[in-house]
Amino acid sequence: MTDLSQLVKAYDVRGVVPDQWGEPLAELFGAAFVTVTGADAIVTGHDMRPSSPGLSRAFARGAASRGAKVTEIGLCSTDQLYFASGKLGLPGAMFTASHNPAQYNGIKMCRAGAAPVGQNTGLAEIRELVEQWSETGLPASDATPGEVTAHDMLADYATHLRTLVDLGSIRHLKVVVDAGNGMGGHTVPTVFDGLPLDLVPMYFELDGTFPNHEANPLDPKNIVDLQEKVRETGADIGIAFDGDADRCFVVDERGEPVSPSAITALVAARELAKHPGSTVIHNLITSWTVPEVVKEHGGTPVRTRVGHSFIKQEMARTGAVFGGEHSAHYYFRDFWNADTGMLAALHVLAALGGQDGTLSALVAEYDRYAASGEINTAVDDQAGRTAAVRAAYADRPGTETDELDGLTVTGDGWWFNLRPSNTEPLLRLNVEARDAGLMADVRDEVLAIVRA
């Protein structure tokens, strides 16, 4: 039996094309997706990578062969695919490898209403069928093949987002947007059309080879161009999207990055003003500021594991109005509990344009602690190095430990989280403290143990 363990991840399918997969496997994934979900109709979309149209069409063939009608929305951002899944009430599949290099591609799948498909919610069964069929061939089906039709939903997506945030009365803003040659270049012009914004576009040309920089704004080197352009043009704000434009990153008028935790706190405050007393989800690596702000605005913070499937499950369980992650994924109840960087960006623009101050002044109250950012260390033995850190802090007075997701240790004015990567031999460290000196002390002590 073909082993797809390197291709099927915790939340999606992702690998190198054509080395690890291609259109024949994509067709099997389409057939398996329909079989597992029981869907009689689905919606598909794809990003700008050279391999995406072919993979998406092969997936549609496989789905149609099982009798499902397929609505193809074509070029789109991942959150636009979630919109289509929610609006049409159909399971969906998005062909993208997000911020990964050009040779990669993948599939993000969801059930109707953008409900996540992960290892425990259908992805394991899909993998099992594809592994089996890749050896035996796709079995014959009695179903009448479904029709495949095209349906552009970009305008509907833009209209929906703009009904959720009032931007009509904001002051005029100069906004630099770096799309990284990704799908933001497709969605931003339509979403921003007619708003009181002076848009300065960067790298809006759709190009899945990423000729200017990787479409991964979480890496500081990939926002250098944006920072320079904001300073050069005297812009009020800079926004960067990743490759599939489901995450947004913000820099202020000085070109300084605004942490995703600060954006989470800001948007949480706005959502709680609209929906008093609601729950807000945050993963365990977001800043202490987030639960503090949620409580200050009358909401209930709920801490969860890292990862969109966990966030979305908690959103559904608690009825939360909003959720945020340190990686700049932002989830909204008004968007089928799915993540949308574009809606988060509109909230920031509304907050900035609704007052006269700078962005740096606006976000200062949401940035209360010193943070290390995520530090990755390659290790041979993830469990062994984690155990060494656990042992070092086990009997230290005044510390508390939990293992909701990796190892979290909290002390007087500081905390750190150390967790293994799901896909690489890495340990990921995040540290936060009341001041930069204490943060550096804790960071250096933990790294010395990890790297011993």
Automatic annotation (TrEMBL):
Q: Where is the Alpha-D-phosphohexomutase C-terminal domain?
A: 374-447
Its protein name is Phosphomannomutase
Alphabetized Pfam families for the sequence = PGM_PMM_I, PGM_PMM_II, PGM_PMM_III, PGM_PMM_IV
Record PANTHER family: PHOSPHOMANNOMUTASE (PTHR43771:SF1)
Which terms does the UniProt entry file under GO BP?
carbohydrate metabolic process
* Family note: Belongs to the phosphohexose mutase family.
Ordered alphabetically, the record's keywords are: Isomerase, Magnesium, Metal-binding, Phosphoprotein
* Cofactor(s) essential for the protein: Mg(2+)
CDD domains hit by this protein: PMM_PGM
Q: Which NCBIfam families match?
A: PRK09542.1 (NF007088)
GO MF terms held by the record: intramolecular phosphotransferase activity; metal ion binding
Q: Tell me where in this chain the Alpha-D-phosphohexomutase alpha/beta/alpha domain is found.
A: 6-135, 156-255, 263-369
- Does the entry feature the keyword Ion transport, yes or no? no
